[in-house]
Structure formats: structure tokens, C-alpha cells
Amino acid sequence: MNLKSNPIPWQDRPAGSNSVMWRYSENPIIDRYAIPSSNSIFNSAVVPFGEGYAGVFRCDNKSVQMNIFAGFSKDGLNWDIEHDPIQFNPGNTDMIASDYKYDPRVTFIEDRYWITWCNGYHGPTIGIGYTFDFKEFFQCENAFLPFNRNGVLFPKKINGKYAMLSRPSDNGHTPFGDIYISYSPDMKYWGEHRCVMKVSPFEQSAWQCTKIGAGPVPILTEEGWLLFYHGVINTCNGFRYSVGAAILDEEQPEKVKFRTQPYLLAPSEIYELTGDVPNVLFPCAALHSIEEDKLALYYGAADTVTALAYGKISEILTFIKDNSL
Ligand code: BMA
């Protein structure tokens, strides 16, 4: 499998900015109506593929049904998204029932691209599938019982097992939520569930005091696993979703080494403040180059469009360590 890609999207930090992460000046990169059926395209995942990039996109249609669609790009910025949703073939099971699919993540492990998403099976739980080519897709057993959201695989086995973060939840707009890790020998049976991170006390870090959930697939760095996550505060006008980051131990990722007290990004641009669900930044993917010290974070903005932010990995790691809870 050729994982050599075109250069990842990048823009230098704007003059005068001292933010650890900054937004792409041409945001949003994907418009809500980018395919004929869509009402909104957001909370989507991209990976290096061939000489460019592939992705799995959450496109809600104009009946506001949630589904996931494959897409391709040469530069990571301009995307061609299929007009029909992904059709799954049976993978390690025949039980591939799904009432809806949303908030996908994608990662390459060993020989294939694994996809996790929030799968509707008597309420939200974590669906798992894989593809080799983004044309043919296979669906596996759901990882967990309902209700669960934000299932995010690590990009390699840890101590011989697949590892996945998730956020046990309820059937509604969950007013609580902590991040757990589970392990599997075979991508079918999951266990050894451990708590990784809980919400923070309101007085210490209010933006992440209601619920937290893993964002993109964790990135292995010299400090450990770099994990971006969303943190939520319940305000008098509803939930507000911001982005923080943590460093998890490489061998035992249930051990949190550092975790940001301040957020890295919070709703402030017009496309984050207004839309179908105002005040939401929801990261689901990141492209990175350790050698070039670059990271491009893809996030859904206001549950309506897809946007991009940049940062230098070394600066982000230093920021997390210097501003840890
Ligand atoms: C969560 C999920 C996300 C969404 C967020 C904000 O529960 O549904 O897809 O971005 O709420 O509405």
C-alpha cells in the first residue's frame, strides 16, 4: 500500500497571531450543499490515500437523515464527494443493521483503512468497517452496546491488541460523558474497558466540564499519543463545543500525562457561531507530518460545514505540557 501523499494542506501562522492553532483563511473548505442531496457536510474524516487523500464524510440529507459518503482529493482542500452513501457488505458478521451513520473516523492499520462511526442500532453505538480502496466497504460487528459515541481507533495495535476510545452516552443530547478505552484481539470482541479521562471541574476548566469525546485518531509523537478531543459546556443557550488536546502514555494510553486547561480552539468565527447547531467545533481527523512539524485539523463547524485549522506539532505538545490541568 502506497502511503506517500501530496504535501498536507498548510498555511503559516498569520502575522500578529500568537495562537497555538490558527484557522485556514479560506474556511470553510466544504460547503453545506457540496453534493446534490446534502443539507450539511461536517464531522468528517480524511486520510492519505494513493497520491492524494480519501475521506469518509458525514452528509446529512435534506430530510436530515445522517449517512456517510466516500470522497477523494488531490490536495486535501478540494474534495469530490460521492453522491450516494457508502453501501457496506458483510465483514466479520452478517448483522450490519444500521438506522443511521454519523461522525466517522478513519485510520490505516496493517493492510486496510478502518472506519468507525456512530451507528444507529436501537440508539447510537459504535460501528466498525473497513475498506482497501474506498470503493468497496465491509461492515463488522458493532463494538459496544448502545449507547455510545465517538469511537476512535488507535492507528496501531497496542500490546498486541486493537485499541479504541469511546464515550458511553445516552439516547439523546447526552448531558454527561467521559472518555474510555477498550481493547480487542480481533476487531470483533471488545473488553478490558478502562477510564481514560473525565470532564473537568467547572472551576478549573469550564469549557470541558459537561462532556468530552475523542476527536481524530491519536498521533504517536515522542511525548506519547497526541489526542485532540472536544469539550463541552452547557450554557444558558445550550451546548458549546471547543477543542482541547491531551498526551497519553504510549504503552498504556489509559494514563493521561498532560491535558490542556485552556482550549486550543473555540467557536469564534461566523461559520462556527451560526449554522444548524451554533457554537460547535467538532474535530474528527488530522493530517500530519512529524518531519515537517505540521498538522492540519479537520473539524465540523456548527454542524453545517467542514473547516480546517493548522498548528505545529512541537508547539502543540509544548502548549499541552505548559498548560496542563
Ligand atoms: C453530538 C453529535 C455531533 C454533533 C454535536 C453537536 O451529540 O451529534 O455529531 O456535532 O452533538 O450538535
TrEMBL record:
Transmembrane segments: none annotated. One of its GO terms (molecular function) is hydrolase activity. The keyword Methyltransferase does not apply. InterPro entries: Glyco_hydro_beta-prop_sf, Mannoside_phosphorylase. The keyword Electron transport does not apply. It comes from the Bacteria. Keywords: Glycosyltransferase, Hydrolase, Transferase. Belongs to the glycosyl hydrolase 130 family. This is Glycoside hydrolase family 130 protein. It comes from Salinimicrobium profundisediminis.
